[in-house]
Every structure is written in structure tokens, then in C-alpha cells.
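Suppose a classmate hands you a notebook page containing two proteins, each written out with its sequence and a corresponding row of C-alpha cells. How would you begin to make sense of it? This section walks through that situation. The first entry is reproduced here exactly as it would appear on such a page.
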Amino acid sequence: MAKGTNCDNCINYIYDEDYECYTCLVNLDEDEMGRFLQNTFHDCPYFRLDDEYAVVRKQI
């Protein structure tokens, strides 16, 4: 898994319409969640690039 620092580009970072905000789909432990909420969760081991063109590149 690639490590990343920008949640905005992560496939696990989605908009939750019930809470009306963006949330992380990964089940973070207490320490990870604290760092996530404080915006200090760098080099996230769960980061996956939200590359919407990956499928298209595979088809070419």
C-alpha cells in the first residue's frame, strides 16, 4: 500500500451525507483517530490514491 498524507486524494475519504462532512472509511484505532481529527495523521498506511482514470489506463 502506498503511503500518503493528503486525505483529499484518498479513496477512503468520502462525503457522509448523514453527518454532512467528509469522513475516513477506515476503522482507525483511538490514537490514529486522534491524529486524523487533529490533521496530524501523516504517512497514512491506509492511503489509496483515488485515481478515477486507473480503469481506463488498464483498458488501453
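The notebook's second entry, a different protein, reads as follows.
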Amino acid sequence: MHFLQIITTGGTIDKVYFDDQSDYKIGEPEIGRILSDMNVAFRWKVMPLMRKDSLEFTENDRDLIFDAVAKSEASHFLITHGTDTMVETAQRLSTLKERVIVMTGALNPARFIGSDAMFNIGCAIGALHGQPEGVWISMNGRIWDPSKVRKNRKANRFEAIEY
């Protein structure tokens, strides 16, 4: 891996909440701060592509992510993304070849104590070093094939699709 291209799209991982009305906005990407604090031993670049809740994503947004990956010289990508439509975006990226793409996010904002964000980012980085070419989702301590996983909103976790 020459360098890790990180693409941020928003989602809960970067949310900032305001106590007065439980309103939120998507803040600055947290992943750069997290990787700097961890003193990782590889080169990385952050490309903040958008700041949206994934429930608001359109096909044009998915095309924008696809184009950013397709046009990059990198071979390894970590994409932070909202969890609600992460599977749909991963499936959209599945035709890209000669790349290892791992998507992750958080069920609680990275700014919250006890957030799953750092754990998910660490697992995603491990997956980038170990997974073959393709698109993968790293959530809840597992690496998922996007065609075989869904978000269980009631249980607030990712799980295998039962056929």
C-alpha cells in the first residue's frame, strides 16, 4: 500500500449534537485526528467528499463516491459513511477493480465517550491490510461482504442476511 486514501462522506461518525433540541450537524471529519492520535505507521490522505446523513444520499452522491475512487491513483481506500445506507453504496462500488475498499462508520459519534468509531476504524484498517481486492464493510468487529449483510436497525448492529 503506497498510501491509504480516506474518503469521508459524513454520517454518525462525524455528527455533532446540540443539547438544546437534540439537533445535529455533520462536523469536520474525525478520522484524521484519530489516526494522528494513534500514531499509525502508514501514509494516509483524507478527502472530505461530503457531509451528509446517509439517509439523505441520492444516486448522484453514490456516483460522486464511485468517481472519486475510480479516478484516484490509490489502491487502498477507507470510506467513512453513514450506517443506514452503507450497504447500498458498497454495492454501487462493487464493479471497481484492482482496489481494496473498506467502508466503516459508527453507531455513535466519534466525539462521544464510548463510541464504536475508533474500534471500527481500527478493524477497517486491519481489513485493508488483509482482504483481497473488492469492497468490504467493517462494522461490529466483523468484515462483511456487502451482498451478504444488512443493518438491523432494531438491534443497532450489522448482521448476516438469512436466505
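A careful reader of the second entry would note: The two ends are 36 Å apart (CA to CA).
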